[in-house]
Amino acid sequence: MECIVNRDGCQAKSDSHKNLFLTFQEDFSKLSLTKRNPFQKLVFMPRKTSVRKLDIHEVDDLILKVLSRNHFGLSANKIRNDLPASYRSPIKQIAERLDNLLAEGRLQAWQPPKGRAQKSPVPIYSLEPLEPLIAKEILQLLKSQSLRPAEIKKNFPPHVNKYLLSFLDPLIKNRTVKWHPPLKGKRLSLQEPNPADFLSGEIKKLFEKGEKLGFPAEAILYAVQGYVKPLPIKKPAPLAIEETQKIIFKAMTSLKPAAAQGALVYIPELRKALREIFPDKDSFDQAILNLARLEKVQLQSHSLPAELTADQRQAMIDNKRGSYFMAIGIRME
Amino acid sequence: MSNHRQIQKLLAPIPNPFLLDRVDSPWQESFYDVPDINRTASTRCQESIEAIQKGNQSRGLILHGEPGSGKTHLLQRLRLSTQKDPRTWFIYVPPFPGPGRFWRHLLECFFYDICQRSKLPDVLGKGLPGEATKEEGPGQGPLTQIEEALTRHLMNKPLASTQELARWWVDICKKDHPGEALFRRLQRTFDYLTVQFRLDPDVMKVLRHYLTWHHRSCAYAYLLGRDLPDDDLALLGVKQSLDEETRAREAVLTFCRLTGPIFTIILAFDQIEGLQLTLEDLDGLRAFANNVVDLMGQCPNLLILSAVQTYFLDTLKKSMHVAYYDRIAQDESILTTLTRESAKRLIEFRLNNQKEIVDLQQQDAKRGQLWPFTWEVIDQIVPPEGLPARDLIRRARHRFDELKKEIKIPPPRSVGEAISQHWNELFEKQLQQPEVRLNEGVYEDGLLRLLQTKPPKGWRVHRGWERDIHVLLEGQNEKMGISVSNSENMTSLARHLGRLQTMISSGKVNRLIFLRDARLPIKPTATVTQQRLQDLVQKGMQVLRPPAEAYAALNVLRELWNKAAENDLIIGDSSMSMGQLKSWLVEKTPRSLQELIDVCQGVTISALDELIDKLIETLKGQWMVLLEDAAQKMAVPETELAQLVIEKPEVAGLLAGPPMVLFLNPEAVNRT
Predict the structure, then answer these.
(1) Tens digits of residue pLDDT in B318-373
(2) Yes or no, beta carbons of A303 and B311 under 8 Å apart
(3) Is the dihedral of CA A194, A199, A201, A205 positive or negative?
(4) Do residues B474 and B459 lie in contact, with contact meaning Cβ atoms separated by under 8 Å?
(5) CA count, 13 A, side-chain hemisphere, B430
(6) Whether residue B558 sits in one domain with residue B662
(7) In A, which residues are within 8 Å of B65 by CB distance?
(8) B26 occurs within a structural domain
(9) In this structure, is residue A232 part of a structural domain?
């Protein structure tokens, strides 16, 4: 049985041939080209004598078809290998077609990091952007379990496995995926590590010993809390005074429109309104005091500081004269 | 000679220009003012006045700031500004003594202030007739505010100058002499005004008496709200005094309406914080809001100015309906703290008011107007965030003393000693002041504060909620009422006592104290009053006649209390808190006040209590005593003693005999 494929028009010479061609084309589309098929060899064995011109559109379609069966993409070489033998033109030509498809936006390419090798690794072509695709797959895998990197790798083809850490890196950086402390190997998970999973023995020992010494559980917990060191608060970059004034005045007038005419605004309310810009007490207090020093605002102290609760004092600003600034107003004179 | 020594030598004979650091009343004569300081706050007040005149509707204005930022000073500035405006009255209203006395208190303040001669400088400056003699009387001297306002009506010249008005009086008095003739002559005009402005006829009649110097002192007492004797009322041609809230309200409305629509009346309510007895007590604030809003609704020409401390705004808002607060706080005037620049101006002003300092400044061109101070000194005494005016003056005073090397380190004084000394000064001053009206409110409010601070053992003290019961003491099963009446009208007093008789009979109170100032006699000829009084005394009522000292002491107590309530009680350089004042009051109660407490304390110890105390004393240490022996020792009949023990098992028990034996309940030993 022979098949003559006219590269210009994809037309068979005779009707019988034509039918046969169509039949083969259908079969071809059904077969997985990644698996070697003895029948394929028979069917697509080209005749040495035939002079064929490849249709580029047809090649493009076939490339896309190959990639549609490989979600995680393939390198140019692999794509070429998966093409029907009669379409396996030199790699250069295949690369040309891939570049063309890339330019048309019909496929995506992912350039693996260079690593230690001097030679740049070959790009991986896929129909969808590869990074989000693999990230989605990783998140799906970690949804209900923590896994070692090797266990994750098993779920991806080798050309992706090789670069798994590159795909994981952004997920770890943005804290979507977290490294857990080693417990039968280092693991990755979507959840924060639970100390109970890692320190269960030590916790058990602590409470057992505490119990022997006659300490109730609450007392031990209280003692443990004493070891907690406050986490350093990251301070945002200080704002320029003009910017500070603008922000504070805007917040004041939005809390009380008459503030623009000098009406007073309660400092605790202003602090609350500006919590995102001045997350800590000190930055807010300093911003207000700086404006007062520049005579942009006036500050009014509470007359009965002894009546204030600790929380109320905390929400106001110490005036260093035995009371607390409770209200702020834009200076009008 | 070093610069420091030279300054010290130069300043040595000069008094400190920063001694005066507070204004106690807007009517205070001395006035040191830097108009630039708090100009915005003053402008806001003026804008409110203009808005009333334009809109023909009353407005509320809240004036607030820190303690010592100059609230009363600003009121003084405002009062003085009304001197230039013939269409404005200024009335100063300190805290009223209890929610049920708002109108009577307002009437007293109102009439007292409109009888002030605020336009005096204007008159004296123009060299008017009568100036040389400085005699009083129509056409003889300067006019009071009320006289001016009425004269404008009479002349039908609402904007006439003070000079013109005084001249008119000279002319009119030539035709009809002050007294009855003038009183009769003005009748038609006054009747016309009464109808035109819907005024109270009695108040207008008495006002005519006052204006024409016809029974003027009686008229003055009546218009201040004193409950006058029938004879005086007959003299004035009226039947009822203005000593009840409804009558006082009518009188206030009459004064407000009388001025006409083009007139603005500033009612400056100061120390609003003083309306609270305790931090939880909102009755006074509510009464203030309700009555003030009522007044604003009745009269279109009022500026209700409420001076408070900024911290108190929240309490004020919570104490009343939001719509009332919005009305009272329609406009806002805020006193600012001083910046370094404004502090410099104030210091310069004070220095330049002292002639000796100005002379020294002019002797050397290098010295300048700030000498002996410098900018560096101002930087040192004024913190970068600014400070209130009073703090600045105090710091400047210390600095001036340092420059003079007159740093007097006073011997360390305890808080108690400082308050005692201050108390004595105020008390002496108060005793010397002539009393125009013996205000019952002073007794009511003063006693309430005094007894709440130092209550009789086992008794709780409240404001009375029944008419005529002004202070109520509640014991375990008993209620004791204190009723105050300074009525000079014996018919009113008889009615008052009659109501007390009913109250005793109905059992609303078990015991009564009737309090009446010793300076107000009860006429022996007032038969009904005397009878009722005797009857009440027989029923156990205690009559308390406090002397002038007690009245003065209660007045001083109220003054200190109101200042402490707004954290403005400054003695020397120290600020005294309410807690410190109360502790002092408990530990070092002044004699005049202690005497009042002792009377109440004495009454609260009932005969029954005395008997129980005797019984415990008899049984204590012996535990069991024969009934017969105990009765003999206690000088009571056996049956009465047995009855007492049966009724009071928590004190003792009775073992049936013979012989009958009493035993002490151990719990009674710890009885308080």
Answers:
(1) 999 999 999 999 999 999 999 999 999 999 999 998 888 998 888 887 888 888 88
(2) yes
(3) negative
(4) yes
(5) 21
(6) no
(7) 300
(8) no
(9) no
Confidence of residue A223 (pLDDT cuts 50, 70, 90): confident
Q: How many domains are there within chain B?
A: 5
Domain count, chain A: 2
The enclosing domain of A36 has a CATH number of: 1.10.10.10
Strands B331-334 and B59-65: parallel
Q: Inspect the interface and report whether the beta carbons of A301 and B309 lie closer than 8 Å.
A: no
Q: Contact at 8 Å (CB) between B128 and B167?
A: yes
Phi, psi at B568, each rounded to 5°: -120, 20
d(CA B651, CA B612): 8
Task: Tell me, yes or no, if the pTM score tops 0.80.
Answer: no
Between CA A124 and CA A192 the distance in angstroms is 33
Tokens at residue A3, please?
Answer: 């098949």
Q: Is B328 within the bounds of a domain?
A: yes
What are the structure tokens assigned to B484, written together?
């105050």
Helical residues (DSSP H) of B364-414, grouped into ranges: 375-381, 389-403
| CA B549 to chain CA mean position, Å | 17
As a whole number of angstroms, the distance between CA B549 and CA A238 comes to 64
- In this complex, do A303 and B312 lie within 8 Å of one another by their Cβ atoms? yes
| Helix, strand, or coil (residue B61) | strand
pLDDT digit string (tens) for A152-192?
A: 888 888 888 888 888 888 888 878 888 888 877 888 888 88
Does one domain contain both B495 and B543?
yes
Is residue B648 located within the same domain as residue B596?
no
Chain B residue numbers with beta carbons less than 8 Å from the beta carbon of A304 are 311, 567, 577
Calpha distance B347→B395 (Å, rounded): 11
Q: How many CA atoms lie within 13 A of A199 on its CB side?
A: 8
Structure token pair of residue B221: 């007492």
The token pair at B365 is 């061109």
Q: What range defines the domain where residue A316 resides? A: 241-330
ipTM field: 0.72
Cβ–Cβ contact B5 with A under 8 A: no
Quote the pLDDT of residue A14.
Answer: 41
For A51, A59, B382, the CA distances from A40, given in Å and listed in that order, are 21, 18, 97
Q: Give the nearest partner residue to B385 out of A264, A293, A303, using CB atoms.
A: A293
Task: Write down the pLDDT at residue A6.
Answer: 41
Q: Are residues B78 and B143 in the same domain?
A: no
Note down the domain range covering B620. 607-669
Q: Is the confidence at residue A7, as pLDDT, over 60?
A: no
Contact partners, residue B209, CB within 8 Å, separation at least 6: B183, B215, B216, B218, B219, B236
Q: Which residues of chain B have pLDDT under 50?
A: 1, 120-134, 671-672
Q: Per this entry, what is the length of chain B?
A: 672
| B127, B174: one domain | yes
C-beta separation of B400 from B565 below 8 A: no
Token pair, residue B546, equals 């406090």
Tokens at residue A314, please?
């905390």
Within a domain: B324? yes
Q: B354 and B328 in one domain? A: no
Whether residue A279 is contained in a domain is answered as: yes
Distance, in Å, from the CA atom of B189 to the CA atom of B152, rounded to the nearest integer, reads 12
* Domain co-membership, B600 together with B611: no
Do B88 and B13 lie in one domain? The reply is no
Q: What is the pLDDT of residue B529?
A: 92
The residue of A291, A304, A319 whose CB has the most chain B CBs within 10 angstroms, and thus the best one to mutate to test that interface, is A304
Q: Where are the beta strands (DSSP E) in B510-620?
A: 511-515, 542-544, 569-571, 574-576
Contacts of B386 in chain A (CB under 8 A): 292, 295, 298-299
Distance of CA A52 to the CA centre of its chain: 48
Domain-terminating residue out of B604, B629, B655: B604
Whether the Cβ atoms of residue B117 and residue B143 lie closer than 8 Å to each other: yes
Greatest Cα pair distance in chain A: 108
Residue finishing a domain among B604, B634, B657: B604
